[in-house]
Amino acid sequence: MPAPLTGLPALALVLGLGAALQWGAWRLRIPAILFLLCAGFLVGPVLGLLDPDQLFGSSFRPLVSLAVGLILFEGGLTLRFDELRGSGAVVRNLVTLGVAVTWVVSTLAGIHLAGVDFDVALLVGAILVLTGPTVVIPLVRHVRPHPPLGPILRWEGILVDPIGAVLALLVLQALASPERATVGQIGLAILRTLLYGGGLGVVAALGLARTLERFVVPDMLHVPVTLGAVAVTFGLANGLQPEAGLLAVTVMGIVLANRRSLDLAHIAEWKEHLATVLLSVLFLCIAARLSLDDLTQLGWRAVLYTAALILVARPLAVLASTVRSRLPWRDRVFLMAMAPRGIVVAAVTSEFSLHYEQSGHANAAQIVALVFPVIVLTVLFYGIVARPLARRLGVAAADPQGVLLVGADLAGRELGCALHDQGFDVLLVDTNPRNAAAARTLGLRTWHGSVLSTRFAEEAELAGIGSLVAMTPSSEVNRLALRQLQATFGRARLFRTANLTGGHDEQQMPGRVLFHDGLSVEAMRSRLQAGDRIRATKLTEQFGPADYAALYPPPAMPLAVVTPDRRLEFVVAGQMPPLRAGCTVLTLAPTATPAVERSPSDSQRG
Q1: Cα separations (Å) of 382 from 211, 461, 463?
Q2: CB atoms within 10 A of CB 301
Q3: Dihedral angle over CA of 395, 250, 134, 327, nearest 10
Q4: 541/596 Cα distance (integer angstroms)
Q5: What is the Cα–Cα distance from 78 to 388, expressed in whole angstroms?
Q6: Which residue has the higher pLDDT, 249 or 455?
Q7: Gap between the Cα atoms of 398 and 466, Å rounded
Q8: With contact defined as beta carbons under 8 Å apart, do 275 and 71 qualify?
Q9: Alpha-carbon span 531 to 236, nearest angstrom
């Protein structure tokens, strides 16, 4: 076996391979964690190309710990309290009562199914109460369940990480110490974690927020200052109480995310890219430190143990956490089918198994042998089952007809209002704050920010949305948006307005060109500013397609058709949906048209 790479070649291998695997996972719509774990195992113990301990030396463990802290901070920035209206109690129960149930069941399963010692089963059970946003959030984005399931899972995945890490640390300290810790000592450790972690997180967040709000720091230094504040807070909290740093940075992110007077969009987008790089490096390096003997020593017992977590522990935890809630039973069943394990589980396992071994326990390898098969198998199982189960339960639409409109200027707002008036879910996205505010004033669901950001993909509620319409004035933004969300909606549900220039670039762009004459968004905006309006006209047996054509002669232009079975079909260049009785046609028409006044079936927005 060749000697492991060192220095720059090793770093280049980790970064390059991580980026390639992230891209490959995106193309194949497979959770990246699976690729990264397999690749890390391949370049580590199999090929011997990567030895993280030799590459990073004594800095490896603190680097892993800090990276996990940054990932949790980035996750905390996505948590907003207004998402939890009516479901906050469920999240609270999942991260308290649900954690207790999972711990007890996983401990019993470790003893009776996996056959490990009580101490190992207790510690592994504490570690596996964690789920993790790094795998939960991509699955939620893929499934697109109805509210409030997405926010519940996102909050649980982020909040349970510091809670589970602290629980596992307390168990480890109790087992590793010569004299078992008393209840009073454990209670004191929990109080210190809450005080140092939660307190420092709040203080650091408020201090950073005031600094940014008062423009003390220039824009170009917002990201470095935020990163430095997170690192200092994490290190200080961990110095005062082990593992309190995870709680501190999570609380810090949540406080900043709910600061209404603070715009963190530019910081959040940068954090997304950093988190993606860190995830790639962490998974590759952690997997590269494993050995085949450690992973396979329990054999099928590890599979049985994982099955107990999936089929017994998670359902019981959700049942206990939702016993008095108003969640429908379909929502509860879906929550039972979403508990994959992620990077924090892997990082905590790697670190704690080493601590356990150094404390003199000979069976520390069993910790890795139990946990890592759980990570791989839960990601596989939930990744395969979640989407079909959600559609079978009716918590995710099998054929959603709502529309994501990229561009909230006058044209986007008028089209959004026309679709909303017909009962379709509409979400408008725009980076212009005035456009976003104007859309909200009209009662339209709006996202202020870039559709290309990972923050949009993680936080935007896409339940009921089945099509994408890119209608910004920038053909480049339209092209990137279509490519970014092609895997989410599929090629058949991607639409865009025509470019002004046309030509070769027009033909190479993804998405079907909207409207009969290739109406550009600029031309549509000009017509609306001149007084044209989007009108809804329903066809009947007495008022058919010929009557519609007579009522709306050119320059009137049909934009979309709502079929009798409530399907939305856009008019695309060269293709007009068939018209029949029961259809409703949305038409861009001049205001002053004599024929309009004679149409009793026509309705319009004023």
Answers
A1: 42, 20, 19
A2: 18
A3: -10
A4: 19
A5: 26
A6: 249
A7: 9
A8: yes
A9: 61
DSSP H helices in 359-473: 365-393, 410-421, 433-441, 454-459
Element (H, E) at 470: strand 465-470
d(CA 220, CA 451): 22
Q: Using an 8 Å Cβ cutoff, are 465 and 428 in contact?
A: no
pLDDT given for residue 163 in this prediction: 81
| Cis preceding linkage at 148, omega within 30 | yes
Residue 578 CA, chain-centre distance (Å), reads 38
Q: Within a 10 A sphere around the Cβ of 592, how many other Cβ atoms? A: 9
Reported residue count of the chain is: 606
Distance, CA of 269 to CA of 468 (rounded, Å): 22
Six-digit token pair at 601? 């079936």
- Give the sheet arrangement for strand 402-406, strand by strand: 445-448, 426-430, 402-406, 465-470, 494-496, 512-513
Nearest residue to 318 via CA among 152, 159, 171, 162? 152
Q: ω into residue 555 within 30 of 0, thus cis? A: yes
Identify the residue whose tokens are 């140092």. Answer: 196
Is 50 exceeded by the pLDDT of residue 599?
A: no
| Distance between CA atoms of residues 551 and 543, nearest Å | 10
Whether 413 contacts 444, CB under 8 Å: yes
**H helix runs in 291-403, sequence order:** 292-296, 300-308, 314-321, 329-336, 343-358, 365-393
pLDDT of the residue at 174: 74
Cα gap 204→253, rounded to integer Å: 10
Sheet with strand 602-604: strands edge to edge: 568-570, 557-562, 584-589, 533-538, 602-604
Beta bridge partners of 584: 538, 562
**Which amino acid, residue 464?**
G
- pTM for the predicted model, two decimal places: 0.68
